[in-house]
Amino acid sequence: MYSIGGYAKPSSLTEAIALLEGQPGAVPLAGGTDIIRSLSNGRAVARVLIDLKRIPGLSGIEGTYSRFSIGAMTTIHEICTSPLVKKAFPLLSEAGMWLGSWQVRNRATTGGNLCNASPAAELACPLLVYDAEVTLEGPAGLRVMPLTGFFTGPGQTARRHSEILTSITCRRPGGAEAGHAGAYERLGPRSAMDISIVNVAVNLGFEGVSCIGARVALGAVGPVPFRVPEAEALLLGHNLDPRLIRQVSLVAQKAARPITDIRASAAYRSDMVRALVDRALSRVLKKVSRCE
Length: 292
Hints:
- The protein has helices at about 15-20, 35-40, 75-80, 85-90, 90-95, 100-105, 110-115, 125-130, 230-235, 240-255, 265-290; strands at about 5-10, 25-30, 50, 60-65, 65-70, 135-140, 140-145, 150-155, 155, 165-170, 180-185, 200-205, 210-220, 225.
- With about 290 residues, the protein is an alpha+beta fold.
- It has 3 domains: about 5-50; about 60-170, Uridine Diphospho-n-acetylenolpyruvylglucosamine Reductase, domain 3 (2-Layer Sandwich); about 180-290, CO dehydrogenase flavoprotein, C-terminal domain (Enolase-like, domain 1), CATH 3.30.390.50.
- Strand 13 (about 210-220) and strand 14 (about 225) form a beta hairpin.
- The longest helix has 26 residues, at about 265-290.
């Protein structure tokens, strides 16, 4: 039985914000793949669902090879199939393919995936290593903040009640002129349609063979997806090699704060952080070696 008191379908962002501001129990509805399930099993209550699907300007992908913007209502399927994303920000399309089924990806949205704030969210780690920023719009106007500060806890974000996430902007580390290589790794109980036990994204910018930009992000091993500055600092200014990869993997493992749950123990997750970071950086090394 759904715990819903009402439903509204605004035709503008201004109208949607006003509805949220006037209804303390109102909840934005994007793709609905998470909130509808939570409502049906009683884990969430909504006095009013504010459907965002008719609002113009909240979907689409635009930008360049070094920077681009994703509308919050852009579906995961659009992320996975966008030529720009595949070419310039491939970790996003790669991670998106792990999210649910084909049907879910055609419904689920980028903004919804972030606002759900699962520690294991598939898009979170790739967006973190692409220096993502989120734009929120509310009664007080626009607010832009780094994704690193958006997640505040499991299922919790810095979005204020009357605000709507409108877009996500990504950049490549090291600048537009640097060469880049990245990798996404995840471990799950099944090869599809299951959330990650651990997920990892790395993205490096290179000048020649020297690393001039480094991003390492972990998911499902802490209360929020997060970057590992200590691991990134180890990579900067150095040539990637197997010895450095082992050091960085150990540092990432120490930064993880996993829990034990029905899917895996904390000890297993910790070991898998080391293994997956090693695997991801080894893939990067192969890509860089081929370009030398």
